[in-house]
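Subject: Sanity check before I submit

Could someone independently write out the structure tokens for this chain? I want to compare against mine line by line before I put it in a report. The sequence has 324 residues.
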Amino acid sequence: KGVYDFVEGLLGDELMTVRRTSRIFFNDRYFDYPPSFLNALWGLGPLTSLKIAGSYLYERARPNSRPVVTLEDWMIRQFGRRMFELFFKTYTEKVWGAPCHEIASIWASQRIRGMSLAAAVRQAVYPSSDPPASMIDSFRYPRLGIGRICEKMAEEMGERVMLGHEVAGLSRQGSAWRITARSEEQALEIEADQVISTAPVTDLVEIVSAPGPVREAASRLQFRDLILVAAMFDHPPLTRESWIYVPDPEIIFGRFHEPSNFSPAMNPAGRTTIVFDLFCFRTDPLWSWPDERLLERALADFKKVKLADEGFLSRLLGFKVIRA
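---
Independent answer below. Compare away.
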């Protein structure tokens, strides 16, 4: 709540309330997310729906003797094995690049806390004013995009914002922090009462000169990387969804969205941008693909999700690829 209040106070009237709607493209069909009971029943068919319900009831009825250690354990316990294998396994492994039995359960208990098959059905039948975070139906968003948070903070801080500097050292001296920063023109030392770091922990342990065993442990951490392919078209928006998820491992992107669905100001009138999220490691061949090849593959796979035809794709105005 403290962070929420801070952003509200910072942006004020620039914040919009956006209706959150998401779908999953699975088994050649679109399903609501969070799942709607009738939508899932219609799309999956009564037999598969009964198997999902039976699998969930079996998990809830059997003695809870096995410890919940991995993400796979947690999801099977909350949704049943059938739902886990149908919906969650492929998408999660596509995003994180690791099997669900190698990911700790704490990830799910924080990221999708309060979610279960029973919770999804209950929310669909009896909507609550205080649903689990993953099932909220609206959110606040800056009219000119998420970058306005940083821009507004910089406006308020004025000359105290130092761009083009690298933090080379950080140490504690008594009750104060001493920061060593440098740029191409200068090196300087700054004292501060408090420090907030957004650097990767692998960099931070070097900056603070952490003990050797800490740096050695941090060096074994692996980061999942992201490629964004943003393509603008001379065409009105195709969807009304905030996000559309695509678990199919044969399709190069795992998720896509149209920024104009967050705010109409995010695109010129009558045009739309499709932003594709490609999850990978920078050691994967995909990371080194030329931008044009990434675009070509993303658009070819976009046709497979049944939203765009050749007529739409022919109205491409331009694109940008960002590796993060």
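---
OP: Matches mine. For the report I'm noting this point. Residues 123 and 305 are 28 Å apart (CA to CA).
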